[in-house]
# Entry
Amino acid sequence: MSEAEAEPKISVRGVRKSFGRKQVLDGVDIDCHSGESLVVIGGSGTGKSVLVKCILGLLHPDAGSIRIDGTETVGLQRVARERLLQKFGMLFQGSALFDSLTVWENVAFGLVQGRGMERSQAREIALAKLASVGLGPEVSLLRTAELSGGMQKRVGLARAIAAEPEIVFFDEPTTGLDPIMADVINDLIVKCVREVGTTAVSITHDMVSARKIADRIAMLHQGHIVWHGPTAEIDHSGNPFVDQFINGRADGPIKMQVRAA
Amino acid sequence: MLRFVAAIGAAFLTFLTGTGRLVVFAGLTLATAFTPPFYLRAILREMVNIGYFSLPVVGLTAIFTGMVLALQSHTGFSRFAAEGAVATVVVLSVTRELGPVITGLMVAGRVGAAMAAEIGTMRVTDQIDALTTLSTDPLRYLVLPRLLAGLITLPILVLVADIIGVFGGYLVGVYRLGFNPEAYLNRTQQYLQTTDVVSGLVKAAAFGFIVTLMGCYHGYYSRGGAQGVGQATTHAVVSGSILILVFNYLITAAFFGR
# Structure
């Protein structure tokens, strides 16, 4: 394997991030290779979203290094950051669709505003992406408030992949959906990732979803990655944190805070 | 005693931090005006929103202000037989002070609050982060069009308010107080100078910038769901209104303080 091939698509080293006195990330180390689907699992409030926002540049880490294709991204200036963001797509937990725009305008937004594409051309692409997530052209003229939760997720997914980014982030893609719709979304993510060869980083606490979409799973707990490995090995990780989490047990090394400190 | 001093110090530091953050926010936003892409359609949309849709409330406020002013000044001036000054007082008060201030306050309540609520909701539902991930600068796309629209539209709105306010004074002066219409109009023009109108328009531009800046700033930094958006809306209106009164004094002093 050449040196270029060995270079991870995303390399996170020693990333620390705190909010006031609360240390959320405390030296996170993780790699994700090109074309790989990495899922970060962990309980609520363990910093999964903060980690993804640091990689995207929406939050600035207090310390550490984040490399994309071997290039350091921490401390990037505005123009370089905007160029880097063209490599990314993101499906937000609540979909984060723009409620002042129609469905197709949401999907085409990054193409028109971010890349200066003609609206007519962007509309064609938006309709094709909507079709790829199972939504017909009749949906394209609706406002986002008129859509169900599952449809909003699918529109969010179409928007995330509209510009065919190199890396797509999925933040809790199945949260709040019924099991059938959750499986539909999982299938769409697998299809998008496998067919296009995109690198995917997902964060979830839904183990059904994690097993379905992940090539590799990493567990975040108290600001550290406490285990990572191939999806097939997660049931035999030998890690007490992972065992407790994937089996959903209240007893174990992970103590849930039930009262304010 | 030490605690009391510490509390004052902490409040002062919070004030300085907030002021610094506001200035940086405004500076970063204005810096985006000099490089493409330019969102002209968004500016026009905001101009319609701020200007056209504020016309009814501003018009109503202006006409009643002019009417009350004519009535009050007539009541006061009749005590020393100076009723003839009513038209002059109305036109100078409206163009110099009441037109811009009342329009600014009305727009702060209507537009500043709406901007804070809209941008605040976008913040707490991750829509602003989504803009960033779609290679779109939120300051350039969301904030700059609103600031420019406020800056351009408020003077036009104040010009309309001036005309309606003077007309309100005319209605009361002629039909209630019995002034001769021609004499009233002559008096209105006689002492009115260009500086009176220009100072009002400069104030309007400043107020337009202040109102939209405070709406966008408080919305942009809102936190914590519906409650945070509600607080942002309140802060936008309160701080916008106070700054309008402060800058009204400063601009008046700059124009007429000598």
About this structure: Chain B has a mean pLDDT of 95. The two ends of chain B are 43 Å apart (CA to CA).
